[in-house]
Specification:
By secondary structure, the chain is α/β, with parallel strands linked by helices. Helix content is 34%, strand content 15%. The chain folds into 3 domains: 133 residues, Alpha-helical ferredoxin (Fumarate Reductase Iron-sulfur Protein, Chain B, domain 2), CATH 1.10.1060; 163 residues, FAD/NAD(P)-binding domain, CATH 3.50.50.60; 154 residues, FAD/NAD(P)-binding domain, CATH 3.50.50.60.
Length: 494
C-alpha cells in the first residue's frame, strides 16, 4: 500500500492548526486542511506492512488497539496516494457511517498500532480520514440514499448519540422504519452537546449528516424522554424492536467537605449549557460562565480538556487542572509496548491553549482535592489540595496516599468535576425491567447486543460503560445487524 519506499523517503507531517491565542477568541473549529499534494505524500508513507494492525480493532491491556470500526486503512491510504479520492471515500464508507466525526474527535488508536510507529512516527491516518470525507462533502459525492424497499417493520432507538445514529443509519438501510427518541432539544447526543463546537462544529458538521439521515427516512423525535414523556408500555406496543443507546451519563461525584457550595458543577452540565447558548445565539447568562474567574478542573481525559478550552474562550482569570494519576513518560514505557495505545505525555488542544495564555501546562499531577472552601454567601472560593503517592494496600490494590506537607490552597470561583461516569441513568432501565451487570450497565453480550427482553437491544456506553465514540459506532452497527436478524430471520448488514 502506498509508495513502496514512501515510509523511507517521507517524514510525517501533521496538519497545521490556528495559533492557540488566535483560536481561543472564538468557537470556530481550529482544524486547517492540508494541501492535496501533501496529503498524497502522507498516504505514500503507508508501508505495505504485510500484517496491518491499524484496523484490527481489539482491546490490549484494556485499551483500544487499532480501529474499532475496522476501517480499511491501508486501502484508502493507497487510494489517496494515487489521487483516487472518490474510490477512497467509498472504501471509507464501507466500515464507517460517520468519518467526519471520527476524523475530528477520535483519539486515533489506529495510529498507536501503526506498524511504522514501532520505530518511526506513524502514518497520519486520522488526518487522511478527515480529508477524504471533507473532500467527499465539498465535491458533492455524499447524498441521501434511502432504501429502495421498505419492510414495514418499525424500530425505536432511544438516544441519538454516536451509538444511536450509527444503529439508525444501518437499520434504515435494511429497509425498516426508524424513529430515534432524544430527550434534549436537538439530536446528536454527545456529538451535539458533549463535545465543544471548536472540536466538532454543530451546524456545519453534525447537522449536515443528521439532515442526510432524515432525508433517508430516519425520524428524530426530540424533547421526548422515554419512560417519562413516552411510557415504555407504548414503546413496546408501537414498535417491532427497540435499541437502547442512552449512553453512560451518570457522572462521578466528589463528596468532600464543601461539595454543597455554589459554583461547583459537573463538567457535562458546563459544556452542555455552553453549547446550547452558542447554538441558540443567546449568550445572555443562561450558561455557566468562567469569565473573570479562577477555574479549577478536577479530572483529565477529553472532558477535562474540553473544560479547559471552554473556560479559556470565556476569558477565565486563571486555570488549574488536577490529575490524580502520575505524569506519563515522554516515550513508551517498557510495560507499554507497541501495539498497545501509547501512554505518553502530550498536550491536547486545551492544554496547548492554556500554556500559550498562562505560560505552562495547567495540569498538576499526583494531586487530589481534599476540601472546598466557601465565602460568607455560600459560594466556592478555594480548593484545598494535597499530593498523593500510589501504594498497594493489603489486597494488592494500588490506592492514593496523601503526602503530609504537600497541602496547597488554590483560589477558585468555579470548580468543574470531570472525573468520568458511573454508567447509564437507571429510571428507564428500571421501567423496562432489563437485566443489568455488576456495574449497572445494560446486560447484553458484545456481538449479540440482545437484552433480557426479546426484541430490545443495547449498544454503546449504556452497555459497555464509558468508552470512545468509535466504539459506540462499532456497537451501533453491530446492534443494527442483530436487530435486523431478529426482525427478518436473516441479515445482509455487515
Amino acid at each position: 500500500m502506498g509508495k513502496p519506499t514512501g515510509f523511507i523517503e517521507f517524514l510525517r507531517e501533521a496538519p497545521s492548526e490556528l495559533a492557540p491565542l488566535d483560536r481561543i477568541r472564538n468557537w470556530d473549529e481550529f482544524h486547517v486542511q492540508m494541501e492535496e499534494d501533501k496529503l498524497r505524500t502522507q498516504g505514500a508513507r503507508c508501508m505495505d506492512c504485510g500484517i496491518p494492525f491499524c484496523h484490527t480493532g481489539t482491546l490490549i491491556s484494556g485499551m483500544a488497539s487499532g480501529c474499532p470500526v475496522n476501517n480499511l486503512i491501508p486501502e484508502w491510504n493507497d487510494l489517496v496516494y494515487r489521487g483516487l479520492w472518490r474510490e477512497a471515500l467509498d472504501r471509507l464508507h464501507k466500515t464507517n457511517n460517520f468519518p467526519e466525526f471520527t476524523g475530528r474527535v477520535c483519539p486515533a488508536p489506529c495510529e498507536g498500532s501503526c506498524v511504522l510507529g514501532i520505530n518511526n512516527p506513524p502514518v497520519t491516518i486520522k488526518n487522511i480520514e478527515y480529508s477524504i470525507i471533507e473532500k467527499g462533502w465539498s465535491e458533492g459525492w455524499i447524498n441521501p440514499e434511502p432504501p429502495t424497499k421498505r419492510t414495514g417493520k418499525k424500530v425505536a432507538i432511544i438516544g441519538s448519540g454516536p451509538a444511536g445514529i450509527s444503529a439508525a443509519a444501518q437499520i434504515n438501510k435494511a429497509g425498516h422504519w426508524v424513529t430515534v427518541f432524544e430527550r434534549a432539544d436537538r439530536p446528536g447526543g454527545l456529538l451535539m452537546y458533549g463535545i465543544p463546537n471548536m472540536k466538532l462544529d454543530k451546524e456545519e458538521v453534525v447537522l449536515r449528516r443528521l439532515n442526510v439521515l432524515e432525508e433517508e427516512g430516519v425520524k428524530f423525535v426530540c424533547n421526548t424522554e422515554v419512560g417519562k414523556d413516552l411510557p415504555v408500555e407504548n414503546l413496546l406496543k408501537e414498535f417491532d424492536a427497540a435499541v437502547l443507546c442512552t449512553g453512560a451519563t451518570k457522572p462521578r461525584d466528589l463528596t468532600i467537605e464543601g461539595r454543597e457550595l455554589k459554583g461547583i458543577y459537573f463538567a457535562m452540565d458546563f459544556l452542555t449549557a455552553n453549547t446550547q447558548a452558542i447554538l441558540d445565539k443567546t449568550q445572555n447568562g443562561n450558561f455557566i460562565s468562567a469569565e473573570g474567574k479562577d477555574v479549577v478542573i478536577i479530572g483529565g481525559g477529553d472532558t477535562g480538556t474540553d473544560c479547559v478550552g471552554t473556560s479559556l474562550r470565556h476569558g477565565c482569570n486563571s486555570l488549574v487542572q488536577l490529575e490524580i494519576l502520575p505524569k506519563p513518560p515522554s516515550e513508551r514505557a517498557a510495560n507499554n509496548p507497541w501495539p498497545e495505545w501509547p501512554k505518553v505525555y502530550k498536550m491536547d488542544y486545551g492544554q496547548e491553549e492554556a500554556a500559550a495564555k498562562f505560560g505552562e501546562d495547567p495540569r498538576g499531577y499526583l494531586t487530589t482535592a481534599t476540601k472546598f472552601e466557601g465565602d460568607e454567601n455560600g459560594n466556592v472560593k478555594a480548593v484545598h489540595t494535597v499530593q498523593v503517592d500510589w501504594e498497594k494496600n493489603d489486597k494488592g490494590q494500588f490506592i492514593p496516599k496523601h503526602i503530609p506537607g504537600t497541602e496547597k490552597v488554590l483560589p477558585a470561583q468555579l470548580v468543574l468535576l470531570a472525573m468520568g461516569f458511573l454508567g447509564p441513568e437507571q429510571p428507564l432501565l428500571d421501567a423496562l425491567g432489563v437485566d443489568r451487570d455488576a456495574r449497572n450497565n445494560v446486560k447484553a453480550d458484545y456481538g449479540k447486543y440482545a437484552t433480557s427482553i426479546p426484541g430490545v437491544f443495547a449498544a454503546g456506553d449504556c452497555r459497555r460503560g464509558q468508552s470512545l465514540v468509535v466504539w459506540a459506532f462499532n456497537e451501533g452497527r453491530g446492534a443494527a445487524r442483530e436487530c435486523d436478524l431478529y426482525l427478518m430471520g436473516s441479515t445482509d448488514l455487515p
